[in-house]
Task: inverse folding
């Protein structure tokens, strides 16, 4: 058991909308998580930062125009680096029909626009665990 905070890396697929990510990062920090806030978009960079920062979880915001096939690459890289236990959650703008597709790739949960912070934090507290 450890008393360190649960560490979440935040990244995004797509350009702009930094304000949304900053708001999310502060909501998670206020709820007691340690947030490593990045504006990384490439799978290699996201997985490399996750390893360097020894995170427990990766949270990704999908923005308008996001290339969601990058989720597949993220999961392949996590396997290749031998850290398949790092789970990935996402949220943001995404056509509803794409949600099953990203879940099939491995995304554990997707939170669409309109989800309240209270719902997000409650889910995170129940589902995101320390990896050591
Ligand atoms: C603010 C805003 C802007 C600002 C952004 C300021 C900034 N620096 O961030 C400005 C004015 C710059 C802007 C520009 C544009 N915008 Co704009 N914008 C918005 C607006 C009003 C709010 C977006 C936002 O920040 N939401 C707040 C965040 C926190 O909420 P959220 O993203 O929905 O996320 C929630 C959940 O999904 C979840 N979540 C999200 N990510 C994650 C990740 C994890 C891990 C978890 C657990 C949860 C989670 O948590 C959040 C809590 O509810 C929306 C409309 C709207 N009401 O949503 C349009 C909107 C997103 N914009 C839109 C468009 C089209 C544009 C432009 C392309 C317009 C243009 N032609 O130039 C540009 C593109 C800019 C770019 N790519 O950088 C469209 C997108 C349409 C689409 N689906 O593709 C929208 C939906 C407006 C509309 N109805 O048409 N925009």
Result:
């Amino acid at each position: 058991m450890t008393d360190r905070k649960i560490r979440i890396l935040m990244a995004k697929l797509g350009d702009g909308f930094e304000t949304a990510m900053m708001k999310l990062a502060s909501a998670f920090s206020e709820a007691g998580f340690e947030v490593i806030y990045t504006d990384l978009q490439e799978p290699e960079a996201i997985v490399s930062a996750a390893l360097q920062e020894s995170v427990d979880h990766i949270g990704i915001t999908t923005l308008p125009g996001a290339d969601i096939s990058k989720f597949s690459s993220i999961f392949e890289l996590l396997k290749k680096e031998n850290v398949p236990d790092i789970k990935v959650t996402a949220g943001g703008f995404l056509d509803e029909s794409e949600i099953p597709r990203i879940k099939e790739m491995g995304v554990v949960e997707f939170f669409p626009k309109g989800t309240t912070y209270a719902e997000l934090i409650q889910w995170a507290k129940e589902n995101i665990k320390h990896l050591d």
In short: Residues 30 and 121 are 10 Å apart (CA to CA). The chain is about 40% helix and 20% strand.
